Amino acid sequence: MRDEPSGAALLDVARHVLTKEIAPGLTGRPRYLAAMVANAIGIVAREIEHGSAMGDAWKRAAALAGPDATVADLAAAIRAGAHDGDADLHAALIATAEMAAAIWKPPPSGR
Q1: Which residue numbers delimit the DUF6285 domain (predicted)?
Q2: Going by C-beta distance under 8 Å and a sequence separation of 6 or more, which residues neighbour residue 74?
Q3: What is the count of structural domains for the chain?
Q4: Residue 59 domain boundaries
Q5: At what angle do helices 28-63 and 87-104 cross, to 10 degrees?
Q6: Whole-number Å distance between alpha carbons of 96 and 54
Q7: 64: closest CA among 49, 76, 74?
Q8: What DSSP state is assigned to residue 86?
Q9: What is the pLDDT of residues 77-101, one digit of tens each?
Q10: Rounded CA gap, 96 and 4, in Å?
Q11: Is the separation of the CB atoms in 89 and 64 below 8 Å?
């Protein structure tokens, strides 16, 4: 059983306080630094929330290279041209890229 609120939820609260209550009173470099910290907090919160799904997506993509393939094996096979034209692998890689983008650079309406 997991305690509530989750670590991701606590980070969201900290980010909200920083961006809505603290940063507006700052100017110049301190405001910029507060924005950097808030951005980092958001990334970590999203990684906590979606990290296992991202790992699972990479495992599914690697499995397309072989039953015991690792992500490193997949990368080597791609570099060697072993999966050129592989639509299933292409779709799996697009899915992992979209997940990563949602974690690292979410749309403005994102968490």
Answers
A1: 24-106
A2: 61, 62, 64, 65
A3: 1
A4: 7-104
A5: 160
A6: 7
A7: 74
A8: -
A9: 999 998 899 998 899 899 889 988 8
A10: 28
A11: yes
* Tokens found for residue 74: 């997949």
Would the pLDDT of 1 be above 70?
no
Under a CB-based contact definition with an 8 Å cutoff, are residues 98 and 70 in contact? no
- Tell me whether residue 22 is in a domain: yes
Q: What tokens were used for 1? A: 């059983």
CA atoms of 68 and 57, how far apart (whole Å): 15
What's the sign of the alpha-carbon dihedral 43, 46, 50, 51?
positive
DSSP code of residue 6: -
pLDDT the model gives residue 111: 46
Euclidean distance between CA atoms 19 and 79, whole angstroms: 43
Half-sphere exposure (Cβ direction) of 111: Cα atoms closer than 13 Å: 23
pLDDT tens for each residue of 36-87: 999 999 999 988 888 788 888 888 888 887 888 888 998 999 999 988 999 9
Is 2 contained in some domain?
A: no
